[in-house]
Amino acid sequence: MKILIVDIETTGFLSKKNPEKSGKIVEIGVVRLNLKNGKKKILFDYIVNPGLTKNQLSKTWICKNGYMEPDDILAGHSFLSLAEELQEIINQHKNGATAFNRKFDVDFLEAYGITFPKLLPCPMLLSTPICKLPKANSYYPGYKWPKVEEAYKHFFPESEYVELHRGADDAFHEADIVYALHKLNKFL
After folding, report:
1. Which of 42, 157, 169, 171 could cross-link to 29 by cystine, CB 3.0-4.6 Å?
2. pTM higher than 0.85 for the full model?
3. Lowest mean pLDDT among 8-22, 40-54, 153-167
4. Contacts of 9 (CB under 8 A, 6+ apart)
5. Contact status, residue 134 vs residue 141, Cβ threshold 8 Å
6. Is residue 102 part of a domain?
């Protein structure tokens, strides 16, 4: 059974109430995962130029933290030039798609007009009671949602993985987490 793992990088958070101030997608990665054997393949890996200036991009979280360079983003593709290919990949995978923080990634892509015929469970939420990370503020019950790097280190403690905050690389490692959850009968 083959499914998709999607990961996007953005300039900030999505704001449906104020689209002018909403974050913009700057990278999209999609990995196909075979749940029978754990094999992975990158199907989509593109930088997206959101139409911002170099100065605007240099002030974004993704650039200020050194994960992407403004010039690389400016050299990226327009989302419109990529949308049809992305939608076709999603449509071809009838078993469904997910993302590590599914709500974040899916909400952004849906705001850009991408549809998901079948959504699968969120691996971040499934990993939460397994990783059992304490919350910084104990006022709220339960465990902290793990970051990709935290979940990866839980499932693969021998690994030296450091999250790159790059679409396809993150999706590639998130697929390992999904496969580990599947082997534990948590991702069905």
Report:
1. 171
2. yes
3. 8-22
4. 25, 26, 27, 62, 67, 68, 165, 166, 167, 170
5. no
6. yes
